From TrEMBL:
This is Intraflagellar transport 80 homolog (Chlamydomonas). Keywords: Cell projection, Cilium, Signal, WD repeat. It is found in: Cell projection, Cilium. Residues 1-20 form the signal peptide.
Amino acid sequence: MISCLLSIVITVKIQHVSYSEELVSCVGWTTADELYSCSEDHQILRWNLLTSETSLVVKLQEDLFPIDLHWFPKTVGGKKQAQAEIFVLTSTDGKFHLASKMGRIEKSVEAHKGAVLAGRWNYDGTALITAGEDGQIKIWSKSGMLRSTLAQQGSPVYSVAWGPDSDRILYTSGRLLIIKPLQPSAKLLQWKAHEGIILKVDWNSVNDLILSSGEDCKYKVWDSYGRLLYTSSSHDYPVTSVSWSPDGEVFAVGSFNTLRLCDKTGWSYALEKPNTGSVFSLAWSADGTQLAGACGNGHVIFAHVVEQRWEWRSFEITLTKRRTMQVRNVVNDAGDVLEFRDRVIKASLAHGHLVVTTSLQCYVYSATNWNTPLIFDLKEGTVSLIVQAEKHFLLVDGTGVYVFSYEGRLISTPRFPGMRTDILNAQSVSLSNDTIAIRDKSDEKVIFLFDALTGKALGDGKPLTHKMEVVEIALDQCGPSSDRKIAVIDKNRDLYLTAVHRLYREHNICKIGTMVHTMAWNDSANILCGIQDTQFTVWHYPSAVFTDKDLLPKTLYMKDASEFSRAPHILNYVGTQVTVRRCDGSLVYSSVSPYPALLHEYSASSRWEDALRLCRFAKDQSLWACLAGMAMANRELTTAEVAYAAIGEVDKVQYINSIKDMPSKESSVAHMLLFSGHVQEAEATLLQAGLVYQTIQVHINLYNWDRALELAVKHKTHVDTVLAYRLKFLQDFSKKETNKRFMQYADGVEVDWEKIQAKVEMELVKEREKAATTSVRSSLASRR
Ligand SMILES: *[C@@H]1O[C@H](CO)[C@@H](O)[C@H](O)[C@H]1NC(C)=O
Ligand SMILES: *[C@@H]1O[C@H](CO)[C@@H](O)[C@H](O)[C@H]1NC(C)=O
């Protein structure tokens, strides 16, 4: 399975249902096993899921009808908050209250006219936002002092959410959604989102996606630019609640007698029809394993996610209970049961290993032995992300990023200033045997690159900066570390490829696709697959773009994916089959050729004869195009010539032929660089070898007149050659000289083609002789 794309199947199990007397309006978790609920009978109840006990925390005064509850953030940037044990409670009388864990109201503040419909702390606990029936939105300090009134409008604000950096808020205004930056001068973004009043919104800090639901009986997923990513069909009743799981992989939806679990693309995994009335509010525990709902009939429902499934090669692993996994090998139907001391929080299966984290420990299994896992204790907090490479894996928790070997040894802990680990996800972190890439959050154009073994920044320590915000990154997994490449999808959905090393030299960042929704590298060859607009695309040899841009389109496999319908999702890519899930949930299979992977293998081991034989056998133009690119990249000119001939590129065949006839090795290297469009590198190669005339000739051929003249003047040679070619060029195009420098040097220089040709001839003879003596000298040296 391709590790960066999710292939899990989830079911919600409603664990138990209990009730108070009247409508429950809100719920909030204190720990992974303890929940507070507030209901219209003025009770605050505490639910302990370990002991299954429910106790009354406090009975509030008779005129206090609670609406919303939100706990002060527990940890900020990995540090425990001193003031963690309070929550905000909003009520129908226009007040909000700061209450202690014991239920004591520490402070009540007059905030709005009419009910306070929502109250939310920001991520670092430095501000509280409240929204009122009076159409106002206010910001308060931690201690409940009014800072400002952020918005004022004619209709009630039913729901608010903070943006991932706590620098913007999202709120409802009738049928509109509005994103307002806190910075007064910044522009607000608003759009019509529903056909009825919007009742709930949520904004996930990890995936930056927005949920909304409303009286039009629909729920929708948006990106933070207001672009619609998913809309549900119409339900029978208004959708009264939506809530993201903390890691942003799934979300829950509540309606009348309905609880639904969806993945972030909107696809619904599970639908339960509990007898609850409307589910007014939903809350996930911080570790994302449990969900609670506040129900109209006085019930509080609890759900947890089970039957999550992971697949790799022939293995299928299912979380059957909260502490139990079932392993099945579909080849021989062998089964194993894995038991854990604590609840499973995260798991990942790839590269022959299963990595499981519970609240306290990490378990590492090898697919060859399910009986004796390696177990080590986790130092701090809850693991929010596991990323695997063949050699090692990486864990992210609230305090940092840790690379471990499969033997459980801590290998490195990459960091950069201002790193926020709570929002890292599979799209913003990538790992290969040698490299770690992490996209920055404060500046989403920036990607930090680290050596996986030391955790130190790569090269000169400068991060890779793209010209636009980056939404997804993925390192390729094969080949030597010096060739490591990173694929990047930016905000415009353009896909780029660049080398991780030598970033500032040979390779630029090259565009290889547009409108790319999703991508994944194969793990056994550097083949990339993705969905591009309505095409399912396989980039059989993406690096072709570095040797010959024109070749890239010829190396692709594309298949119309409109049959996959809108927003398809690649589930896995195993063997020669790709499984894609359409947004209606059905699966579509697509086969992929096995030959490109074989060709990668031949090229990596310089088995060019085998590669040619394979291409002749497969008779596939895209395979020949891949071989042309691979051979050129490896300076294997004979094979390249055959491959280019097979795809009818006569010009390129001739060029390669001329490269083979170059008088010296330096000249052929330079021309191979020119072939790939690397003019500066070609110039440097020639000048370093003292081949000044050849450098000048290269610039003449490229019509780089100024540079040609500059070099000629600087080295006091072939000024007349440059002038002669320039004159010929002007005559061919019936133009007049307008270039001042050329006008200046043309004065008094006689153009004599015979003389020039003789000089050029001499240069070539000299180059050949020099090349011959060097090769004799080196062969003598090697004989010694
Ligand atoms: C990655 O590491 C594994 C384990 O050390 C090794 O077998 C594999 O060849 C490595 N792959 C690459 C591309 O270096
Ligand atoms: C990568 O491609 C090869 C060859 O097509 C295939 O056998 C393998 O299963 C693929 N790996 C993944 C992880 O999809």
